[in-house]
Amino acid sequence: MAFVLILAAGLWGIGALLGTPRRMRWTMIGMLWVGVVLLHLVLPVGSPLRMATGGSAAPWLLLGGLAALVLVYRSALRRVRVRAEAAEAKNAPKPREGAFSEVELERYARHIVLREVGGPGQRALKDARVLVIGAGGLGAPALTYMAAAGVGTIGVIDDDVVDLSNLQRQVIHRDRDIGRPKVHSAAEALRALNPHVTVRPYERRLTEDIAADLFADYDIVLDGCDNFETRHLVNYAAVATRLPLISGALTQWEGQLSVFDPAQGAPCYACVFPEVPAEGLAPSCAEAGVIGPLPGVIGAMMAGEAIKLITGAGAPLRGTLLIYDALFSDARRIKIERRRDCAVCCAKEDR
Ligand SMILES: [Zn+2]
Predict the structure, then answer these.
(1) What is the pLDDT of residue 84?
(2) What residues have their beta carbon closer than 5 A to ion ligand 1?
(3) From ligand 1's centre to the CA of 273, what distance in Å?
(4) What is the tally of structural domains in the chain?
(5) What is the DSSP string of 31-78?
(6) How many angstroms separate the alpha carbon of residue 272 from the centre of ligand 1?
(7) What whole-number distance in Å separates Cα of residue 23 and Cα of residue 318?
């Protein structure tokens, strides 16, 4: 009997060495068992071969029976497990229905595969409301990339009309839009790019009496305006409504941006630029000129900061001023801090 068992173990071992599948190895051992049982049934009692393999068929039949029992038990166990898993899958909570249509899933597929954005990040983008001040050089790329990225509600406020001299850099408008209000030209371009986002154009100048009410409808403010009075007004209203302010600015070949967010410990715009510069010290784009692609770079970075704030990805530019020099292709980061005597953010907190 020991001889047959050693033979079986040998078969298993050789099969394992050759990489034979387990099922095949069990089949070979089963054939060996059938051969031994047949030997006992065919050969006469007392034959040397029968004596060498245990003397009778009984122990082999017992062994076969035990093996069959184990097989039946295991297969029953597997069936029960499969049934339990199926029931579990049926009772598992279903993913939120109606969150994204098939078309949207395909549109945002390159975001959804990003670990830092994924499905939840794209959902957050869809739920987000961003207000953009100015539909000019910075507004054009910022609005375009945010609409393309699927920021669900985008407000844009501007009282200007498209001028021929804008088209050298304000790529959201077209030649046929000359003379049209910028917000309507921009809104049309955004809707044509992504019909799944809501665009709210406000054709008017941002003033103190409407700023706080308007800001209250949004989660983030993005400032791409072209004058210091409006920048300070935007900052004042953003601090009052505790909204993060993504602010960008340009002169000739140099651009800068930062995320002003005193509600999160970062400085506000007035902490860094406390005063409106004297007339002529900070010339506008119209007076000093600006290289066409520069607003594209800074405005796209502003859209990137908005996406980071919304999805929680990476580290936004809070407490950091990023300066980009297009003429020498150089970028610098400057650490900026809150001023304890800031008339805007500190005065607000003391109240
Ligand atoms: Zn401040």
Answers:
(1) 65
(2) 268, 270-271, 342, 344-345
(3) 9
(4) 2
(5) HHHHHHHHHHHHSPTT-HHHHHTTSSSHHHHHHHHHHHHHHHHHHHHH
(6) 7
(7) 62
Q: What is the pTM assigned to this prediction?
A: 0.71
| Gap from CA of 334 to ligand 1 centroid (Å) | 17
User: Is residue 324 in a domain?
Assistant: yes
Domain of 213, in residue numbers: 128-350
User: Residue with structure tokens 């029960």?
Assistant: 80
Position 192 in a domain: yes
CA of 265 from ligand 1 middle (Å) equals 10
Residues 182 and 87 in one domain: no
Report how far residue 312's alpha carbon sits from residue 299's, in angstroms, rounded to the nearest whole number: 20
Query: pLDDT tens across 204-235, in order?
Result: 999 999 999 999 999 999 999 989 999 999 99
In a domain, 100, yes or no: no
Verify that 331 and 279 share a domain, yes or no.
yes
Residues of the chain with pLDDT under 50: 89, 92-97, 350-351
The residue written with tokens 């945010």 in the block is: 146
Token pair in block for residue 29: 């051992």
> pLDDT by residue (tens digit) across 230-289?
999 999 999 999 999 999 999 999 999 999 999 999 999 999 999 887 776 677 777 789
